[in-house]
Amino acid sequence: MEIRKVVGKVTPEERNEIQCLFERRNGLNELAKILTADNSELYEKLVKDMGETGRKFQQWWDEKAKQYGWESHPKGNWEINFQTCEITLIANEA
Fold first, then answer.
1. Is 57 exposed, middle or buried (0-12, 13-18, 19+ CB in 10 A)?
2. Where are the alpha helices (DSSP H) in 1-94?
3. What's the confidence (pLDDT) of residue 63?
């Protein structure tokens, strides 16, 4: 059974930060699907950028969770509603 619970809210500025990282991460993932290792220089840049963006993305969530004291769950993750800036905890109770 899936549990969905609003556990907090961020400012519009904070939302913009994670939205930018979210869109960048998705764009890099799409690029990774079409780029081959044949172009090693571009491939290495992509891999490095994906790692850096992923780190910044996770760091944002970790910092905000600590700052706002969001409820968490061992089998859960947070999701942001970009329209409302609300943070929802999504967890699977099995």
1. middle
2. 12-34, 40-68
3. 98
